[in-house]
Every structure is written in C-alpha cells, then in structure tokens.
C-alpha cells in the first residue's frame, strides 16, 4: 500500500510560507538565525556548490530563502531598492532583538517604542533590504483605548508617525 501523502504538507508548512529572495542565501540564513532566533531546517546547494534554497523555522513557521535570479525575475529587496511588504516578528524582548539585529548589520528604520495597539515595536531593514517590524506584546488595550492612544501617537510625537506608518503601510 503506497504511503498517503498530505497535499498540504502540514507537518512542515503553515498555510502561507514567506519566500524571500536574497543576495546570498547562506549569509541571509546566518543573519536571520543570529539576529532573530530562527533555526536552520536545511540549506540545499546547486551543482556549482552555491546555496539555492534554505528553510528556516521559528515557533512552528517556516521562511524560505532563495538566491537572486534576474533571468527569472527574482531580485532581492535591496537590489530592487525596497520591498512592498514587511515581516512582523513577535519576540520576548524587542529592545534586545533590535539592538542585536543592528549590531549584525541591519539598519534601524524606526525607534523601539510602545505602540497604541499594545505592542512595543522597532523596525529594522535587514542586509537584503527587507523591513522587519520587531515587537513584544505588552498590553491588550480596548478598542476605545487604542483609538485614544492612536490619536496621541499620531499627533506629532517624534518617531511615532514613521513607525505607525511602517506598521500599516508595509
């Protein structure tokens, strides 16, 4: 009797799995492991010995990494000049993770601060140009409290407009 194959491969993947195009698969995998705590599931090398695919995991989700292949239309956010999307990463200690990411080569995009929706957040751009909104959940405001705090934060407090815009636009 042939083994039944799960067409959704639920043992290894969630419903949506991000696939990031990066300039150097091994370097990106190393950065994500050190900066954000991902574990390496595996890296596959092509015939020339260069990494052509990597899978990293974090708390039950997977991120796939692949190299730039201009002939196939695959370019990193850095090569293109920006990414139209961002990744929201919940961590135990946002301040520590953002500082570590910056130390490892990420650029600080937004200061770490308490946000109106109940998370303490900071934004970094990784070496391949992807924006990571790093957060620690610190409160559970009611919709009314959120609305009030949003007004306060959006009223010109330095840094909050950029961070809130990064959170909602990306």
Number of domains: 2
Which strand order does the major sheet show? 1-4-3-2
Along the chain, the helix and strand elements come as: EHEEEHEHEEEHH
Number of helices: 5
**How is the biggest beta sheet arranged?**
4 strands, mixed
| CATH class bucket of the largest domain | Alpha Beta
Counting DSSP E segments of at least 2 residues, the number of strands comes to 8
Low-confidence stretches: none
Structural class: alpha/beta
At the fold tier of CATH, the topology name of the largest domain is Signal recognition particle alu RNA binding heterodimer, srp9/1
Task: Give me the oligomer status.
Answer: single chain
Radius of gyration: 18 Å
What's the architecture of the largest domain in CATH terms? 2-Layer Sandwich
Describe this structure as you would to a colleague:
Helices cover 28% and strands 31% of the residues. By secondary structure, the chain is an alpha/beta fold.
Q: Secondary-structure blueprint of this entry?
A:
Layout: E1 19-22, H1 25-36, E2 39-45, E3 51-58, E4 61-67, H2 77-80, E5 86-90, H3 94-103, E6 107-114, E7 119-125, E8 131-137, H4 143-153, H5 160-169
Parallel strand pairs: 1-4, 5-8
Antiparallel strand pairs: 2-3, 3-4, 6-7, 7-8
Helix pairs in contact: 1-3
């Amino acid at each position: 009797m042939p083994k039944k194959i799960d067409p959704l491969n639920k043992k290894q993947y969630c419903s949506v799995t991000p696939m990031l195009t990066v300039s150097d698969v091994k370097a990106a995998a190393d950065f994500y492991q050190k900066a954000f705590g991902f574990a390496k599931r595996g890296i596959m090398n092509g015939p020339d010995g260069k990494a052509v695919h990597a899978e990293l995991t974090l708390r039950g989700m997977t991120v796939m990494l692949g190299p730039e292949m201009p002939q196939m239309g695959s370019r990193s956010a850095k090569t293109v000049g920006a990414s139209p999307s961002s990744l929201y990463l919940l961590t135990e200690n946002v301040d520590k993770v953002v500082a570590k990411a910056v130390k490892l080569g990420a650029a600080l995009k937004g200061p770490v601060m308490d946000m109106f929706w109940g998370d303490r957040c900071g934004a970094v751009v990784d070496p391949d140009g992807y924006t990571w909104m790093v957060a620690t959940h610190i409160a559970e405001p009611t919709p009314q409290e959120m609305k009030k705090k949003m007004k306060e934060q959006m009223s010109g407090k330095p840094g909050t407009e950029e961070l809130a815009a990064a959170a909602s636009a990306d």
